[in-house]
Design a protein that fits this description.
Helix content: 40-55%
CATH architecture of the largest domain: 3-Layer(aba) Sandwich
Strand content: 15-25%
Shape: elongated
CATH superfamily of the largest domain: Periplasmic binding protein-like II
Distance between the termini: 60 Å
Number of domains: 3
Structural class: alpha/beta
Length: about 300
């Protein structure tokens, strides 16, 4: 029975990713093992479930029918695990999509989760722009702003303050802005990508800023700002150490800057969340940073 459940889980993953190699990498199994599980499932049901070619994988009509059943079976098993959570151990793999700054924050504290649940294996997909839960094979995904429609459920995390900062060398050369309007004459190192100019919301107004560099990675923005290239708007948890050491200085401290609102997206109803996933969600919630204002 356990082999059948494992094969059903693999089938659902293949049906969602449409790629054997991706499922193999995420499952820490070989391509041959994934293919063998599908073969066993087809033999068990006496039906062809997938149409496979060198270019693509598609579900047959029987495969589409089985997919609904397989998801229901897996959901009920996960529900049973959650329902018996007091007796069950948190074990297995949990994949989490998380932003760069927050991912580094949690990585420094993951030792506490490992000590409490040594049979858990945590995988972080760290990126400021996240793929969908299905595409990335995620159990949990930290989202900035409103959760995307793909997520059936979301658990609030909290807010992270942001701060405008620049290196002392930049401020010595260009001076510090006295008002948000002054930013229009400064080199602003913004987060983003594409043809549209970046917009910073400061003191209830939106300011379209520009500069010599921007990136879709907060870490790249941080490094450019720290090098003295310009002024950046960054999560406080990412720059608090630099501010304390004096290697970065906050600017426009008297103006309100809207914080980042974060939540964790997932597909589990509260009573149906697997024990392994619940353990990680509790960790993310408990270790979420609540930083003081930089000034």
């Amino acid at each position: 029975m356990s082999d059948l459940v494992q094969n059903l889980r693999t089938f659902v993953q293949v049906a969602e990713r449409r790629n054997f190699s991706t499922v193999a990498a995420q499952s820490h199994a070989s391509h041959t093992t994934i293919a063998r599980r599908i073969d066993q499932l087809e033999a068990h049901f006496g039906a062809r479930l997938l149409l496979r070619s060198t270019r693509r994988i598609a579900l047959t009509r029987d495969g589409e029918r089985l997919l609904d059943h397989a998801r229901a079976v897996i959901e009920e098993i996960d529900h049973a695990e959650a329902d018996l959570g007091a007796a069950a151990r948190a074990r297995g793999v949990v994949r989490v999509g998380v932003t760069t700054a927050l991912g580094l924050h949690y990585a420094e504290r993951i030792v506490a989760l490992n000590a409490r649940h040594p049979e858990l294996r945590i995988e972080f997909a760290i990126a400021d722009w996240q793929d969908s839960l299905d595409e990335a094979g995620l159990d949990l995904a930290v989202r900035v702003g409103d959760p995307v429609p793909e997520a059936a459920h979301a658990s609030p995390l909290g807010r992270i303050a942001r701060v405008l900062v620049a290196a002392p060398t930049y401020l010595a050369a260009r001076g510090a802005p006295a008002t948000p309007a002054d930013l229009l004459a400064h080199a602003c190192i913004a987060y983003g990508y594409g043809p549209a100019r970046a917009t910073w919301d400061i003191a209830g107004e939106s300011w379209r800023v520009g500069g010599p560099f921007r990136a879709n990675s907060s870490e790249a923005v941080y490094r450019a700002v720290a090098s003295g290239l310009g002024i950046g708007l960054l999560p406080q948890i990412q720059v608090s150490g630099d501010i304390a050491r004096g290697t970065l200085r906050p600017v426009l401290c008297g103006y309100d800057i809207a914080p980042l609102t974060l939540s964790v997206a997932h597909r589990y109803a509260p009573l149906r969340m697997p024990v392994r996933v619940r353990a990680v969600l509790d960790f993310l919630t408990a270790q979420f940073p609540h930083a003081p204002n930089p000034d």
